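Is this the right way to post structure tokens for a design question? Let me know if I should format differently. Anyway, here goes:
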């Protein structure tokens, strides 16, 4: 592919998809460490964690975007969560919204309980819930990164067959290849748009049982805006 054609796609080929291969092991280690500090009856609890990186991803310019991306990520991740976890998962995206606590710098999502009389304990949070949530969030992220990698591979392969447009003198051929490039860019951009928002590294570390609902607090170590 010649230099001019490379410049034409430079702006959209920049997604990093190599940072998520250790998600499962990281989640497992996090879960095991949490078990060692578990109590059995707290209605509000915090797990000791590494320094959160939340604030570096949120500012006035990107807050609305990142909150929307995180809401979509969790909505996809929480689908099909078993009733065993006593959390009511909304059937529509509008029913699940991520918020940002600016004062204490963390994200949280509010989920109603299936049985409001059943308390969420730190033991259950550490032993069962946190691992399930991490695995689900990581799975969504992994699928998105693999889709982007495949799309980029396909795009690059197709672009290798594009001739040097500067050497074309026939208008019809020039028009054909320009249309081909436009179609490829449009297809890749659509795949990128659909998957990019799921490239987030979400880590839950705290909960608050408020009776009818539970607040699940989390921080980020990477987001789609940091890739």
């Amino acid at each position: 592919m010649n230099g001019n054609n490379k410049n034409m796609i430079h702006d959209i080929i920049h997604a990093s998809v190599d940072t998520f291969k250790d998600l499962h092991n990281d989640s497992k280690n996090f879960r095991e460490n949490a078990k060692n500090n578990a109590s059995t009856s707290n209605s509000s609890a915090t797990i000791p964690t590494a320094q959160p990186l939340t604030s570096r991803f949120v500012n006035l310019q990107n807050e609305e975007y990142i909150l929307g991306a995180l809401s979509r990520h969790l909505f996809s991740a929480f689908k099909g969560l078993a009733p065993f976890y006593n959390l009511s998962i909304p059937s529509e995206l509008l029913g699940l919204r991520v918020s940002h606590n600016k004062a204490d710098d963390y994200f949280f999502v509010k989920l109603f309980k299936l049985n409001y009389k059943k308390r969420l304990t730190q033991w259950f949070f550490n032993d069962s819930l946190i691992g399930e949530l991490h695995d689900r969030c990581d799975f969504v992220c992994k699928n998105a990164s693999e889709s982007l990698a495949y799309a980029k591979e396909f795009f690059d392969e197709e672009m290798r067959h594009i001739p040097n447009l500067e050497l074309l003198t026939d208008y019809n051929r020039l028009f054909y290849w320009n249309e081909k490039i436009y179609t490829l860019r449009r297809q890749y951009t659509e795949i990128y748009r659909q998957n990019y928002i799921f490239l987030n590294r979400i880590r839950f570390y705290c909960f608050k049982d408020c009776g009818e609902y539970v607040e699940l607090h989390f921080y980020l170590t990477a987001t789609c805006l940091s890739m």
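Format looks fine. Someone answered above. Worth noting: Residues 103 and 213 are 22 Å apart (CA to CA). The chain has five helices and five strands.
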